[in-house]
Amino acid sequence: MSYLFAHPLHVAALGAAHLALVATALAAALAIALPLGLVLARREHASNLVLGVLGAIYTIPSLALLAVLVELIGLGSAPIFVALVAYAQFVLVRNVIAGVRGVDPAQRDAALGMGMSAVQRTWRVIVPQALPVVVGGVRVAAVAMVALATLGGYVGAGGLGSLIFIGFTIHHTDEIVAGSVAACALAIAIDGSLRLLERLVRVN
Amino acid sequence: MSGAAIHLSGVRATYSNSTRPAIDAIDLDVQPGEFIALVGPSGCGKSTLLRTINRLVPIEAGRIEFDGTDIAGLDPVAMRRTIGYAIQAVGLFAHMDVAANVGVVPSLLGWDRAAIDARVDEMLELARLDPRQYRHRRPHELSGGEAQRVGVARALAARPRALLMDEPFGALDAIVRRELQHELHDIVRGAGTTTLFVTHDVNESLLLADRIAVMNAGRIEQCATPLEVLADPANEHVRDLFADDAAVAKLRERAKHG
Predict the structure, then answer these.
(1) Least crowded by CB within 10 Å, which of A35, A65, A70, B230?
(2) Nearest CA in chain B to A107
(3) Do B153 and B167 have their domain in common?
(4) How far is B72 from chain A (nearest CA, A)?
(5) Does residue B168 sit in the same domain as residue B150?
(6) pTM (2 decimals)?
(7) What is the 3-state secondary structure (H, E, C) of A83-137?
(8) ipTM of the complex
């Protein structure tokens, strides 16, 4: 722990870079998963197919996927960014679909029968009702992404992973511990804030 | 505001998962302000018939007119905002409070905030729910009877010219149902709203309706006043549906002998 206390600002800066990487990857992942999930929610066959593919991606060992991505797009933050977005899809899309399908049929019928347009039904009824389930998925994905993003240290993407990999290379346990503890703290903080958000958007 | 005239002729509708029409050869003339009950056994097509009127179920033959206008030529979304809709499962929006639920259609129609607030209070009072107490409650904080009162208030909030109700009181206990039946009667009579009301409770239809449309296997077998349906049933099925007890037998005897 001495490294952490000796260089708190350095660790904090790496933590901020780590958070930025996770946050942008999460935003990109949601930009794909939200529309995809909304569309797939009403298509039984297509949703099974897509979830099967996303589930298969989810099972690829992360180190192997990262190696392939580095071959394809080179070093830096790009490969880890793509890996994060790809891994998050399974949990995010699955939860968007579950959230949308979980909307009470009577409320859908009432919304349609009272004269809401398709856009109004989506924004005024389906999205608010599905939101708690979607945020639950975001929470699970975000925590996993914080851990996964440490692999970025291996490919030159910076973040807390770089501390861990430097420590690994030069046999300094202290730096490994500092990077790991900071990553855990970040994951716990994100989990806590998203848990709060989940409570805020709860329907009942 | 007066109720709308609704005219159906030769209406047929078939669900995509079936080859047999759910309703067929439906002719029905509903006068402005009239209260029509649609009764019949489960699967007879009464709910389907109701849902063709606000175009939740598309028709494949025939014609439905709303105040003389063929509804096929109207924008379904705009048209639905002029027709109240209440269902057994109520379908109150769980993420909105009571006031927002009652104000849904007025807000879709672009009423201003003050007009919506005033109308919400008016509707809650009409539904015998104290606005101060109920405005900000969430649907999960309401009893079944209270939720259905809010459902009726919501259906009528935008002063619709017609009201479609699909077994609105079907899930309530007998005492609450009776109370709501009487109140609904007063409310829609007061407003002069043309009402179509689906029920499988024949007593409910006798109590509320100007005319009862008795349905079976997708067709209307008789459409007449409660007295006529009781005294002079069109066929065995109609006779069976309305309990053949002593009082009804006497009524039939009386009708026969003038």
Answers:
(1) A35
(2) B91
(3) no
(4) 16
(5) no
(6) 0.84
(7) HHHHHHHHHHHHHHHHHHHCCCHHHHHHHHHCCCCHHHHHHHHHHHHHHHHHHHH
(8) 0.89
